[in-house]
Structures are given as C-alpha cells and as structure tokens.
Inverse folding.
C-alpha cells in the first residue's frame, strides 16, 4: 500500500507538471500601455498601440505600431507579427479614440474592453482631436514614452480635479445608465507637448459636441463632489459694485481653490421636467486682481455675491449647451429616474425630455479664508 | 423514536463553532456573481430580495432546529428513516446524498470556471479539479474537527476582504437605490427565489446537529451566522447596485470580482486576481461540508469506510467537472440546482417539521391511550 | 513511525519476566567475582581492580569515578580499619549513596554508571558506592537562543546539572522528577519533569507511556527523542519545543507543560506546544508589553514574508504581470532584462545559494563561518547580478526572506520556514497565485490536523479561545495573564488571583 502510494505521488507530480499554465513572464511580453483607435480604410479598425518592450541592453524601448483589421483582437495578432514579444494588454492604462471613432459609436470598444478580464476597469479614456495615430506617432523631443506620458498627464489632472475623470468603469457606467451620458477629456498635440484641450460630450455612444477645457470645472462641479481644485474666473464689471474696489477696473480676475463643494439636484416639476440645482462651494481665494480689501466683511460678501452670480451664469450656459446637443452628462436623468416612480424611462425618452428641461441654478459661494498675507 | 447517534465527546464540537460552520457553508461561489441574477428580476430593489431571502433562512432554520429538537440527537438521515420508514426513508436519504453531490459539484465547477475565465484560460479543467479535490480529501480525512477548523480559518482569514468594499463606494451613487419598492412585489419575491443558489449551505445544520456538545445553545450561533451572511450579501448587493449602472450590472457576470478590479495598493494592483485565487479558501468549507454531509448519509446506507467513500465521491466529481465544459452547461446546472435546492432547503424542512410534529403528537396520544387502557 | 496513542488510556504497567542472566548472584570468592565482572564487561582496559589486604577488593572504571572521594572517603577508610562484613563496611563509608547488591547484573550496571564496587571476600554481596564524576563542560550562555534581556545561562550536557538548574528556578516540592531509562544499549537517563498539581495527569501519563514504549537501542540526543514521541513524526512541523534555556523550560513547566531532559543533551523537550508558541521568545516576558507585542507582530510578519514573498514575486512575474504597479514595472522588467532564466528558476537558484551559504556557515568554525556568510553573500550576490543570472530586486527579496526566517526564536521552526518555501516557489512558478493558494490551504489543513500531546496544535486560534488569542499575537500585560493556557488543560487554572491592574491606593 505504501509503495503504491509513493508511486502514485510520483505519477501525480508528473501529471501536474503537464498541467502547467501558460506563462506571461514579465520581460518576455510586450506591455501595451496605450491604445488609440481610429477608423481606417474600408471601415476597418485602425489600432495604434504604444508597446513597451524590455531589451537585454537594460533599456526599455517604446514601439508605436499601427495595424488595421476588423476586430481589435485581430489587430493584436497583426501587431504580434511585427514584434519579437508577445503583446499583452494587462498593463494598459489609457485608451484614446480618434474623433471619427468617437463620432461614430463607442459601444464596441467599451464592450470589448469590459469583456477582457485582463483589462483593468480603472484605465482612462479620452478623445483625440483629429486622429489618434499621428498624435502617438509624432516624435516628441522631450517625451520618451508617449503612453506613460499621456497616462501621467490625465492622471495628474484628474487627481488635481482639473479635468473630469473618465475611467473605463465610469464610461461603462454612464453608457449603460439610463439617465446619464458619458463625457471624456479631449487631448491634442500642441507642438512638442500633449495637452488636455477640452471635454467631449456624448449622446449614447456618439460624440456630439465639445466644451473647452476651462468649462470642465463647471462640468465637474455639477457632475460630482469637488474637493480640491484651482479655478480662475473673470468677473465682469457690472457683477461687482465698484465701491469694493480699491482701483476701478473693467475686469476682475479671481482665482480660487474650491475646498469643498456640494451639489444637490431637486426635481420640482415632473412634467416639464424642472430641476433645482443647488451648489454650495466653500473655497479659499488665492488671487484677486485688481486688489480687493479682503479685511472688510462687506467687500468679501460682495465678492462672494459676484462670484455666485458669475458661476450661476456660467453653469447655466454649460447646461444649456449640453441640452442643445441632448447630452445629459450631469445625470439629471438619473435623478429623474430615482425620484419618479414607474417612470419607465429609457435613454431615448430621456434625451427627448432633456431638451426641454429647465434648470434653476443656485450657487452658494462661501469664502473661508485667503492666504497668509493680507 | 429513532436511535440517537452516539458520539464520544472528542468528536463533538462546541455550539458556538456552529457560527463558523453555518456562515462558512453559506458563503462560497454564489457571492462572486449573484447580483446579476437577482437584478434581472428585482432591478434596483434587489437588496430587498436579499433581505427577504435572509429572513426566509431564519424561518427555515427555526423549523429545522425544532425538528431536530424533537429527535434529541439525530440527523436528517435518521429522522427521515424514522418518519417515512425504512424504504422511503432510505430513498430520501439517497436523494439527499445526491443533492449534496450536486451541490458539491456545482460549487467546484463554478469556481473552476471563475479561475479559467479570470486568470488561466488555458489551464486544464481536470488539473484544477484534481488539485482542489486533493486538498478537500486531505481536509476530509482529518475528520470533523479539521473541517470545522477549515471553516473557522476560512472566515477569519477572509475577513479582510470585506473592508475592500469601501473602495468601490467611492464611485457609488446612493440614488441608484431609489425609488425604493418601485418594482412589484412579485418580481422582488422572484429575486429572493433566485437567491437560493447563493444563500444555501445552512442545511448542514441538519447533519451536524448531533455533533454539537451543548445542544441548548444551538440557536444563538446559528441565527447569528445567518444574520452575518445576510448582512454580507446585503452590503455586497447595495454596493453593487450603487456602483454599477443598470445596464452594466446586468452584463457583469462576476460583479463582486469586478468590484475589486480597480482596487490598487502601492505594492499591488488589480486586486481581483488575488481575490479570485484567495476564494479557494472561501469555498473550501462549502466543499468539505457537502462532502461530509454526503458521507454521513452514505454510512447509513452502505457499510463504507471514509477513505473509500471520499475517493469514490471525488472520482465522480472529477469525471463530472471534465464532462461539463461550457458556460452554458454550467449555467443550466446552476439554474436547475437552484430550483431543486429551493425545495430541498426552503420547503422540505418546513414540511418535515410539520410531519414530525404531527407524528410526535400522534404517538404521544397513542402512548397516553395505551396508558389509559 | 507513528506514536498515536489513545489519549485517555491509562498506563498499565507491563509485568516483565526478568531474564535469567539478571538473576545471577554475586560470587562468594573475590577472585570468582572479579572474573565474572571481567567476563561481563569484556575485560576493558580502563577497568581497575585494587585489592586492599586482607579481604577487600575495589573494582571501578577509571575516570568514571571521582578520584578525590575515592582516595579520601573510601580507600583511606578501608586501609586503616578491618571490616568483616559488608554491612559494617557500608556504615563506615562516608559517602551519601551506598548500597548493597547481591545481583551481578545490577552491580555491573551501577559500576558502568560510575560506582565503585567493593567486595568483601567470602560474602555473596557487593557494596556499590556512587562517586560518579561525569565529564561535562561548564555552564555557558545559550548559543542558539540568545537574548538581550534575561538570564544568560543555558543547559549543558549533564542531566544532574540541568535538573539542579531547574530546581534553582522552581524551589518547590511539587516539582516532580521521574527518571526513565531508554535505549537497550546506551541506557540513557531521561528525566520527566512536571509540576504536581498543575500539569494534567493524562498528559503526563501519555508522555511517560510514549517514552517507555520506545524500543530503541540508542538515544544520543533529545532531538531524536522529540521526533520519536511527536504526535505525528512524519510532519515537517515540530510539535514539541526544544529549548536550551532553563528559564523558558521553567516557564513552560509552570504553565502546566511537561518537560523531558535527556542525559548528554543540552536541549530540553517541552510539550504540549502550540504552533504560535514557536514564535514566542522568553525575552517577550522580560520586555514591556508594548515592545514585546511589537516584536511578536514583527516575527509574525517575518514568517509570512519569509514564506510568501519569493513565491509572490515568482507568481507575479511569471503569470500575473497585471498586478504589478506601474511604478515597479519598469525597474522590475529592466532588472530582469538580462536574466536568461524564467523567474522560478532564478528564484530557486538564489534560494539554493542562500541555503548553501547558511549551511556552510553553520558547519565552519564560528569565525570563518561569519566571514563566509558576509563575503559569500556580498560577493556571490553582486557577481550574480552583474553576470546577469539574477535580478537585483529578487536578490533583495531573497535576502529579506532569509533574514526573516531567522527571526523565529525556535531554530527548528526556522528550518521549517526555509524548507516549505521551496515547494511553494515551485507551485507559484507553475500555477501562479493559484499555486500559492493551494500551498496555503494545504499548510493550513496540515496544521489543523496536527496535535501536540493530544492538544490542538493551532490552539488558541482553533479551537478559538478569545482570551488566549490576545496573549498569543500580542503579549498582554502580566496582571492580565492570570490564567494558564487551556492548551495544557492544567489542574490549576489560575496563576494568581486576578486583580485590578492598578490596585487602588488606600
């Protein structure tokens, strides 16, 4: 019995060796860090992949490859044929869409990436002004690894709350949500640099419009709770009574740091529908030009009022713009769905209603403090 | 009355360990992806379904313990023989063993499927099933003490996964839960019914009861365990509903694992890869208890030693995992098993309790009559 | 070899038929007697026979007896006086342990043990006077279990010295000392020590029976005995503690454990011992509880690091490149770029080198051993990285896990940690995290299956005892540790009456 057991153990171990899994040894795979999608010739998908390879010379080099095929997996196979290492997507950080792809439909790209277990839900997505391939293929003087660079660029801006966050999870969440549309940052090449140039608004899976980068603050403030973020706005002369000013000026530039913001949506009228949007911002004023006497409570209150007025105007403008293109990136529909019982809401139905929606924006702006020098 | 099972104190376990037994037997593969199935029926009120299912487990367990208390120190197999007589009783026992086998098999196959889908698409099913079975055989041959120990450590060592739910909460929107009770009660109940596959496991109580030292204190740990399970399912469900949007949740097969997908630490990213493998520890008690329950039944039917039984059982399970290959087949088995389990776990114990109660009253009357006569 | 005994079975003393040769009596005539002794001991060169006229003969083995007491207490007494009978002679000897024996076998046994045999011509009896002097080194600091704070004395190879050391720590008549003999050829003395009134009788009986049931011909060290009386001798995990610290030994005995000391071995056996106790050091008791707790947590972390760090590296680099954070990605892949082997081979190679260094260091004399360790470590490590057969990150990981494995206060457990790493690395290299988890589950179940003298090995975690769990991972302040561990099932549960931590000022 014991002999038999010993033999069977040896046999088993051989059997197990046979059952060994397929390896993906780190230095033997080419890691795709970024993928850009464009529409190629004959409606094929043109994929531009930034692939990081490690060579025995202790240097990692970055390959930018463009392939055209019917599916993204087909593209991967094509790329494999051109590289010495197996291409893996598990370390992918950013997906870029060319403008033509974004204007077509993103559904396929969202699904195929969700399906793949090795693609993280935390990768960033963005739209490229024009085509993705030229942006990636351009030989930048100071950027060694374009994939890494774009990832850092987006990550840094999202963490600093300068730009709306668009991870795969959030995109898929909004795409499959009834009452919300997705929005993504837009990037473009600015000579030797890559720049976040705006926000793309989508209706369903189609990109319908863009907003300039400056407006991403308003989008963010309405979309979600804002914690740290620097913002600069220009107050018109009529917004602020001149008595607070130490020097008369036509325009006043204010830079502030929103420490905390809170947004509340309230559905006041189901039929129209009409929403109250109450936004509370607590902030720290960093810079006012020309100078304002901040020691005086009255002038501070005046400044607050002026900023409130200005913000209300700007936010209403951004919302109105999104209504024009029927892209509810703020999630009013979500609020509608969760408040109205048995609304039987669908995405198309909501887009119809969204056009005629009324929003009353109320901003409550509080200056908590300024710097350490008055 | 049936003969009570005689056991030496060394084989018995303390009542408070039942908490770990019941809780460990309940949580297993189901939790990895139950959200989608419940959501299909109950939409965003799915958490109410979970709650209802949790309450149902309490009711059923109450009946189970009542039934077991009538018989003092006996398990389901003994009770069935006592109530239905030798032939029907043994037939029911055989059916229950089959039920345990299918449950065992379904847990095993589902876990293998998860491993294959997430990390090793190319690894052989037979290999995964063989390795898991060897671990289970090793645990089983250690006896009940070891099995209960496995369930204890499985719970204690996986406690740290629960706080991980806080990470996805960052992206949660509470509004997704509203409006509460928008869906009609029927669909919510249907959702609760779909919970069966996920929430079963506590029926192990039927078998393990004679092994408990202080039978008076059984209630508290068992109900606490059910409460803990319901709480975990409820929180996972709540987080899932708020984290995913309607369409996305319906399309996500293993929503719990996907929840972990973007969790990253400074030393590690993609937490779900660790979680998928770590789940082995969570399903171990499931498998061990079903195997053990089947064994307890088998020794009543035939004279079989533990070693022979466990090898036979594993062999069949092994063959089964190889035969069932595709996702569709696995899903069919899950659905069918879930439906059968609903009757076995939720309906049958209540019936059994009623019958046992009636029989007890009847015999008591008879005895009384006899005494009077 | 398994020594699984039913735990609650009481010992039944086996009645042995004494072999015939044991009954041979001592001869009347001295010549006869001397001849029979010579025959029985195969006429060894160091057998000394001294005749003191007129009728007395002294027989002993050279260097086994104390020369001084032989001269002063025996020969001096015998030379000046004339004794007719063994009885009168016995009274005259100023030695504490003198017996009269009439059986030849018994006489020879005691002589081999270090007694002088005195035969008076014409009587069928012999006097045996025990003046044994055993060669033994002086007491020194424990080398394998050194501590910063605490006593600096360790056991040595002499049974009597060791017992006297223990008696110095525990001055109490309840300290029981049972003497047993093991080994049909070596006749090694083994002492069973426990506290009467604390130690569980069943455990003492079980252990006694396990020792007496052994049929072996030699017993040279306590480690051998420990392996043979373990609950599961086949397990890689030791189930009994080997310690060379008398303070640790005494602490364990006072907790209700049973100790075994083997003559000629400087390690004492303590059992039952739970898995977690292998990671506790006696020094923990001597430090403030916060510091001791920190050290214990450090050791626990070290254990997990040591066992799982290298496999984790292997698994992540072989299969799960997804889990590597981006910050590590570039340094990791660049350090691996030159390495021609897969990670599993690389890791095994380095682990092998580390083990080689350790083994070589242990075999060589202390001074050279240290040099080998440092030089070998630095030279081989740097050279291996430069030659491109390993990555420097792996080098750090391996060194870290080797270091961590040495934090275990028990050398035996440290060995286990180093050994079980190898199969886990192999599993990780073949099946990634799945393999690691497989190994983890296997070890967990294995530990659950073990017992130490019938007590659960994973106590106090399983079966769970919440109060004791606190005192295992963290060290509770001493006023809160009034209870003895339930592991030993002590007869007396309380060490002292639990009192409030700070008695109220009156």
């Amino acid at each position: 019995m014991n002999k038999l057991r010993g033999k069977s153990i040896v046999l088993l171990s051989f059997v197990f060796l046979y059952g060994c899994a397929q390896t993906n040894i780190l230095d033997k795979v080419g890691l795709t860090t970024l993928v850009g999608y464009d529409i190629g010739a004959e409606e094929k998908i043109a994929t531009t992949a930034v692939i990081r390879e490690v060579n025995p010379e202790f240097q990692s080099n970055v390959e930018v490859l463009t392939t055209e095929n019917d599916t993204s997996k087909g593209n991967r196979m094509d790329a494999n044929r051109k590289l010495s290492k197996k291409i893996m997507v598990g370390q992918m950080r950013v997906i870029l869409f060319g403008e033509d792809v974004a204007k077509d439909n993103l559904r396929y790209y969202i699904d195929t990436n969700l399906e793949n277990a090795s693609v993280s839900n935390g990768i960033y997505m963005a739209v490229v002004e024009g085509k993705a391939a030229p942006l990636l293929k351009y030989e930048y003087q100071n950027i060694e690894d374009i994939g890494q660079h774009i990832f850092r660029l987006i990550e840094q801006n999202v963490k600093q709350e300068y730009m709306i966050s668009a991870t795969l999870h959030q995109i898929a969440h909004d795409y499959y949500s009834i009452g919300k549309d997705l929005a993504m940052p837009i990037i473009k090449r600015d000579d030797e640099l890559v720049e976040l140039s705006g926000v793309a608004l989508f209706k369903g899976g189609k990109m319908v419009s863009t907003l300039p980068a400056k407006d991403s603050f308003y989008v963010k403030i309405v979309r979600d709770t804002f914690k740290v973020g620097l913002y600069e706005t220009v107050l018109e002369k009529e917004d602020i009574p001149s008595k607070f000013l130490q020097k008369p000026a036509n325009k006043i530039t204010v830079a502030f740091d929103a420490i905390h913001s809170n947004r509340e949506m309230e559905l006041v009228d189901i039929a129209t529908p009409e929403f109250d949007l109450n936004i509370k911002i607590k902030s720290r004023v960093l810079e006012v030009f020309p100078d304002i006497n901040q020691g005086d409570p009255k002038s501070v209150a005046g400044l607050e009022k002026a900023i409130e007025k200005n913000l209300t105007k700007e936010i209403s403008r951004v919302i109105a713009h999104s209504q024009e293109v029927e892209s509810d990136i703020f999630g009013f529909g979500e609020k509608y769905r969760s408040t109205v019982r048995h609304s039987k809401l669908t995405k198309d139905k909501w887009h119809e209603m969204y056009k005629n929606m009324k929003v009353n924006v109320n901003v409550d702006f509080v200056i908590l403090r300024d710097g350490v020098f008055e | 009355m049936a003969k009570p099972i005689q056991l030496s104190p060394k084989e018995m376990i303390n009542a408070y360990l039942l908490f770990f037994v019941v809780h460990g037997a309940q949580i297993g593969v189901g939790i990895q992806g139950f959200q989608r199935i419940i959501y299909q029926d109950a939409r965003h009120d799915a958490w109410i379904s979970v709650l209802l299912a949790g309450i149902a487990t309490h009711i059923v367990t109450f009946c189970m313990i009542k039934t077991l208390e009538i018989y003092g120190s006996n398990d389901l197999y003994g009770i069935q023989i006592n109530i239905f007589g030798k032939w029907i009783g043994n037939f029911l026992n055989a059916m229950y063993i089959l039920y345990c086998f299918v449950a065992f098999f379904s847990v095993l196959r589902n876990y293998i499927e998860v491993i294959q889908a997430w990390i090793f698409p190319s690894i052989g099913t037979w290999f995964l099933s063989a390795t898991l079975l060897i671990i289970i055989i090793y645990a089983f041959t250690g006896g009940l003490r070891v099995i209960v120990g496995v369930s204890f450590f499985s719970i204690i060592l996986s406690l740290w996964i629960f706080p991980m739910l806080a990470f996805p909460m960052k992206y949660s929107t509470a509004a997704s839960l509203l409006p509460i009770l928008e869906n009609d009660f029927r669909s919510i109940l249907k959702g609760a019914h779909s919970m069966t596959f996920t929430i079963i496991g506590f029926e192990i109580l039927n078998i393990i009861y004679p092994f408990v030292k202080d039978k008076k204190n059984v209630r508290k740990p068992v109900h606490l365990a059910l409460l803990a399970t319901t709480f975990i399912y409820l929180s996972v469900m709540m987080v899932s509903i708020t984290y995913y949007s309607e369409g996305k949740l319906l399309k996500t097969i293993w929503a719990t694992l996907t929840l972990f997908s973007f969790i990253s630490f400074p030393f590690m990213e993609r937490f779900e890869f660790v979680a998928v493998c770590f789940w082995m520890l969570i399903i171990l008690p499931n498998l061990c208890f079903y195997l053990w329950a089947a064994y307890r039944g088998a020794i009543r039917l035939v004279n079989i030693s533990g070693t022979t039984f466990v090898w036979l059982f594993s062999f069949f399970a092994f063959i089964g995992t190889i035969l069932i290959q595709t996702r569709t087949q696995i899903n069919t088995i899950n659905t069918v098993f879930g439906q059968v389990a609903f009757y076995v776990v939720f309906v049958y114990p209540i019936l059994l309790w009623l019958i046992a109660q009636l029989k007890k009253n009847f015999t008591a009357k008879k005895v009384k009559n006899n005494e009077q006569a | 070899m398994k020594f699984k005994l039913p735990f609650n079975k009481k010992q039944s003393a086996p009645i042995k038929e004494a072999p015939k040769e044991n009954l041979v009596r001592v001869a009347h005539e001295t010549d006869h007697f001397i001849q029979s002794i010579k025959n029985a001991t195969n006429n060894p060169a160091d057998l000394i026979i001294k005749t003191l006229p007129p009728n007395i003969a002294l027989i002993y083995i050279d260097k086994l007896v104390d020369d001084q007491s032989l001269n002063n207490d025996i020969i001096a007494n015998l030379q000046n006086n004339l004794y007719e009978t063994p009885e009168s002679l016995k009274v005259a000897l100023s030695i504490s342990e003198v017996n009269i024996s009439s059986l030849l076998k018994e006489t020879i046994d005691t002589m081999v043990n270090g007694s002088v045999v005195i035969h008076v011509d014409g009587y069928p009896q012999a006097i045996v006077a025990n003046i044994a002097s055993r060669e033994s080194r002086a007491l020194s600091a424990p080398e394998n279990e050194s501590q910063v704070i605490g006593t600096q004395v360790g056991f040595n190879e002499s049974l009597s010295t060791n017992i006297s050391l223990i008696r110095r720590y525990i001055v109490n008549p309840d300290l029981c000392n049972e003497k047993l003999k093991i080994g049909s050829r070596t006749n090694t003395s083994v002492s069973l020590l426990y506290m009467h009134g604390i130690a569980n009788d069943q455990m003492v009986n079980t252990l006694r029976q396990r020792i007496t049931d052994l049929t072996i011909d030699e017993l040279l060290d306590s480690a051998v005995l420990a392996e043979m009386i373990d609950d599961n001798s086949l397990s890689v995990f030791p189930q009994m503690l080997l310690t060379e610290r008398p303070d640790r030994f005494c602490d364990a005995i006072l907790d209700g454990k049973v100790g075994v000391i083997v003559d000629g071995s400087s390690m004492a056996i303590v059992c039952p011992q739970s898995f977690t106790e292998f990671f506790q050091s006696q020094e923990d008791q001597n430090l403030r509880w916060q510091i001791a707790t920190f050290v214990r947590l450090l050791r626990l972390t070290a254990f997990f690091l040591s066992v799982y760090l290298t496999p984790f590296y292997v698994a992540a680099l072989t299969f799960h490149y997804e889990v590597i954070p981006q910050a590590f990605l570039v340094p990791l892949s660049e350090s691996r770029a030159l390495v021609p082997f897969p990670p599993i081979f690389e890791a095994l190679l380095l682990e092998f080198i580390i083990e080689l260094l350790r083994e070589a260091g242990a075999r060589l004399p202390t001074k050279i051993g240290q040099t080998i360790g440092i030089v070998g470590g630095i030279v081989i490590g740097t050279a291996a990285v430069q030659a491109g057969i390993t990555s420097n990150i792996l080098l750090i990981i391996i060194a870290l896990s080797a270091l961590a494995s040495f934090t275990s206060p028990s050398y035996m457990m440290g060995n286990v940690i180093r050994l079980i790493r190898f199969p886990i690395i192999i599993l990780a290299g073949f099946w990634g995290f799945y393999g690691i988890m497989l190994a983890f589950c296997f070890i967990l179940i294995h530990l659950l299956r073990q017992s130490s003298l019938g007590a659960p090995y994973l106590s106090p975690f399983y079966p769970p005892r919440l109060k004791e769990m606190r005192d295992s991972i963290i060290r509770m302040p001493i006023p809160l540790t009034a209870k003895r561990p339930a592991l030993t099932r002590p007869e007396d549960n309380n060490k002292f009456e639990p009192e409030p931590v700070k008695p109220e000022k009156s």
